[in-house]
Amino acid sequence: MNNLNFKQIVEEIKGRVDIVDVVSEFVELNRNNKALCPFHDERHPSFSVNPKGQYYYCFSCGVGGDVIDFLKRFNTQSFWEVLKELGRKTGVSIESISDEDKKHIEDVYTIEEILTKSAHYYHLRLTKEVKNYLNEKRAINDEMIEKFQIGFADGTLSNYLLNECKYPLDICLKSGVLRGEPAKDYFFNRIMLPNIRNGRVVYLTGRSLDDSEPKYIHIAGEQRYLYNEEALIEENVIVVEGFFDCVSLVQAGFNAVALMSTNLKDEFVRKFDKCKTVYICLDGDEAGKVATEKLGAALVQKTRIVQLPDNLDPDDFLKSYSREDFDALLNSALDFIRYKLSQISTDTDKTELPKKLEPILLLLNRLDRANSEAFLSHVIKDYFNLKNKDIDAYRQTMKELAKREKEKISTSGFDLPVKYSAHLNGLVDLVLDNGETAFLIKELDKLKIRAEIEEGWWLLLPPPREQVPWLLPKGENVIKIYEQEESLAQKTVDGQLYDDIVSYLKNISELPGEAYYELLAAWVLHTYCMETPQYTPIICLFAVPERGKSRTGKGLIYLVYHGIHVESLRDPYLVRVANDLDATLFFDVKDVWEKAEKEKSEDILLHRFEKGARVPRVNYPERGPHQDIVYYKIFGPTIIATNESVHQILETRAIQINMPETSKRFDNSVTPELAIELKERLIVFRARHFEEQFPEIPKPANGRLGDILRPLLQIVQLVKPEREEAFLRLIKELEKERLIEKADSLEAQILLVIIGLKDRVERGMLPVKDITDKLNENKPDDHKFSYHRVGRRLSALGFRKGKTGDGSSAIIWDDDLTERMKAKYGLNESSEIPETPESSDLNTDNTDVSGDTGVSPKINKNGINLNHMGDSELMDQEDALRNALIFFEKNTPEYEVKYKEWFSYREEGVRRKLFDTFVPASQQELGFNDGGGSSA
Hints:
Blueprint: H1 3-15, H2 19-24, E1 34-35, E2 47-50, E3 55-58, E4 64-65, H3 67-75, H4 79-90, H5 99-124, H6 128-137, H7 142-147, E5 151-152, H8 157-164, H9 169-175, E6 178-179, E7 184-185, E8 190-197, E9 200-208, E10 216-218, E11 236-240, H10 243-251, E12 256-258, H11 266-270, E13 277-280, H12 286-298, E14 303-305, H13 314-320, H14 323-331, E15 334-335, H15 336-342, H16 353-364, H17 369-384, H18 388-408, E16 418-420, E17 427-433, E18 436-443, E19 446-450, E20 453-455, E21 458-461, H19 475-484, H20 490-508, H21 514-526, E22 538-542, H22 549-557, E23 563-566, H23 571-581, E24 584-588, H24 592-599, H25 602-607, E25 614-618, E26 629-633, E27 638-642, H26 648-651, E28 654-658, H27 672-688, H28 703-719, H29 724-743, H30 746-756, E29 765-767, H31 768-775, H32 787-797, E30 801-803, E31 809-812, H33 815-824, H34 874-886, H35 893-904, H36 908-925
Parallel strand pairs: 11-12, 11-13, 13-14, 16-21, 22-27, 22-28, 23-24, 24-27
Antiparallel strand pairs: 1-2, 2-3, 3-4, 5-8, 6-7, 8-9, 9-10, 14-15, 17-18, 18-19, 20-21, 25-26, 29-31, 30-31
Helix pairs in contact: 3-4, 5-9, 10-13, 16-18, 19-27, 20-21, 20-27, 21-28, 28-29, 30-31, 34-36
């Protein structure tokens, strides 16, 4: 896991809590969010919570940080305990993080903690001489020194971190504040300028006192934050180059941030999204001019260029001029297009003018049409005294430039990156507009078609039509449907769409029962609302060949959001379409898991079902550790059509639909065109419910099944509430089948043995040896389980380890855990417990396990109840077959497949036929006569 991914996890969790609310649970804050510090004794409040910055700080003892820091310190919890608790409260899943990644995350957070404590220590070590230098030579007052925690490295940091704070040496060295052998302060004899964000120090820079080179040194690692970044919450902000420029402006009452370099990073541009006006005030040297051009072009609609006299920087200007003088510079600042025009002489020959204006025309193409036309028809026309025919020619030039940019996908005249994108903020979908791909976006409850969209640092274009692997609807058709439906009741429209999807599915496929058409209809609708759910069920179409799996999968994939039919499981391709296209994927593969293992893409299949999951890929090994890995999001709906049962781990993420032998003849061909009208209506459905947060509902089933089916139930409640009861019945049926499958697992066998051995519990202990020996009864030597393996499974089930009186390994008996595990593995209704010889007479045990009271069981030599093996009642057949397979010693793959196939049928006649052919064989294998009596 790289640092960026860690930051995303932590920032998402912190973004969902308010530090004021959290601190208020433990500390009594006044109306100004101040209080007596809980971390030291004091009489006057010096502890403050900043709701804007989401951090706390004590101006007396110097402790401070974010909400995680506060909970760690106040509750004396570890970082991971706090993160886990907040993740649980906020709904941010962190369960998928490996132990190795957890260690890395804690190390990264500890490094940030070391930087924060180092900065505070440097601030406390600020000498009188250094403070005088800051006050007199730099004209920085004490308030600013305190606000920005400016300090001094006097060489004693090593002792403080290692001996007083007790941080491990390796982490201190990794943080960059200590270096060498023995470890010494890297910033010795420098003024320290920490970059503080949300109360934590995210970067450290040291400046020499005497202007000797290097003037500035920094800790190793990428600088990902602007200096004083908290200023970006305001509407207007001034962008400067250096630390002291920024501090001087803030001291003068302005809102400012510093780049700390002229090497402008792409990701910095997005940070200005909330700002209304961005004043660029960089140095007048060549590097400053290049950065001005780059940032101005990126934020063309909101930038103003501040030009300082005599090549002064802001710090020097404020030492020589007043605040009012700087205000006047802001008021006279030119927007970026006028600034660019000012660099072209009004006397430029008209033959040379088109070439000089080309970069500006490129920028005009990025404005909305009204502003673009105003600049062209008035500003440019008046500035160069042009005629109407000249302006007409420039309009045509602009069209040609836009087309050329789209074809080249290169950069603009000012290195403004232009790229294709199929997913962006606010996108409803991709559509066709005059035969070309375009963005369909929602603005103020209206649908708009856009050929391009400016987002942050990028000018985004839709992918070329030939690069979109699904049939695109016409944008005008979608907008027409959207406008027609505005006067209709939403539930009526949605309900009719649901019914029409069911009819479409019935027209292309035969499923096991009516409920499965509605399941798939809800699933199709939920693919258009993937911003909301945390999970999505994999749809697995399972059967022998020639059962309509591929036909059904194609019919679905032509209907869903961004559906792609794939047969290749090549890793780079899957990562690309999942991450870049937000695709719904249909894998039409004989054995999908085997092929995924071969292509080493199992993690993609495993994590498709869960939002927030990322798959790591080492794309840049030459960069070295912590810079070589890219994490890709791969969350999205998935369909699998396969002849082989999916892997057990994948199966828990899936809804398996066992395709029956079809009794229908389908004469129609399944094509994208067949689904296009429904697809247009589905896009309208997405637009109507775009980014809508569905009401929270309880999980409709236990465990992961409840997670993956909850979003489908939310869809049913939204569009077809009258079908909710029927949908819940299907969920219960699916849950029952899951329990039946769990009852055949090794864990279930172990639980049955434990229950049967309850009378052997002594002093609260049950020996692992007794459990293993009972489990291994009548097994050939090469099929017996080892004590170690059974012990691991017992630990996995949650049983605590213990020791018997003679020192043998045991489990601590736990009635509550046993009952919970019985329910989880579907054993509450079953008494197929292999009992000990001392406690059971197999021929006289009359315990009924089928749930059909009053019916005597039939017990075979292994103590297995095959209740009414010959009866025709469906429930008896299920119980009989399940019981037969629990301890079926010759449980071959052939029998497993028959078992799963048998339970897939809903038609009693088909089930009966399979039952009649399979059960007699199992009776014979298990020691039963044809009449069903015991042969023991």
